[in-house]
Amino acid sequence: MGCGCTSLGKYRIGNSYYGKFGLAFKLYGLDKTNSNAFNRFIVLHAHDCMPDTEVADEVCQSNGCPMVSPHFLKKLEPIIKSAKRPVLLWIFE
Fold first, then answer.
1. Range of the domain at 73
2. pLDDT (tens digit, 9 = 90+) per residue, 9-23?
3. What are phi and psi of 21, to 5 degrees?
4. What is the pTM of this model?
5. What pLDDT is attached to residue 46?
6. Mean pLDDT of the chain
7. Closest CA to 43 of 20, 72, 59
8. Would residue 69 count as lying in a domain?
9. 93 located within any domain
């Protein structure tokens, strides 16, 4: 709490909505390390400061939300929305 980092662990990706950063997906923490994700409004969203490719330097930081580039979220959106079963997001070191 308070570090601005995304909690490690598994998340179930929930419904989408449009918020401050555009399209976002609600996240449900499935582990002890992230069980408050839904209540803390931790969501998967895009941000313009996220690059499309891997970089060696640091990138921008959110307040605990996992972020991807807008281009990548456009690729993820149809996959997540058309999935017949819940989609798992696993964040690990």
1. 9-87
2. 999 999 999 999 999
3. -105, 20
4. 0.89
5. 96
6. 92
7. 20
8. yes
9. no
Structure tokens at 76: 């993820």
Rounded Cα distance, 77 and 9, in Å: 21
Tell me the two tokens of residue 5. 């980092």
13, 90 contact by CB (below 8 A): no
The CA distance from 32 to 60, in Å, is 26
Tell me whether residue 14 is in a domain.
yes
Tokens of 66: 């996992």
pLDDT at 69: 96
Domain count, the chain: 1
Tell me if 92 is assigned to some domain.
no
Among candidates 26, 27, 23, 33, which has minimal Cα distance to 11? 27
pLDDT band at 93 (very low <50, low <70, confident <90, very high): confident
Tokens representing 70 are 């807008």
Structure tokens at 74: 């456009």
Q: Is the per-residue pLDDT at 70 higher than 70?
A: yes
Q: Are strands 9-19 and 22-29 parallel, antiparallel or unpaired?
A: antiparallel
Q: Give the pLDDT score at 59.
A: 85
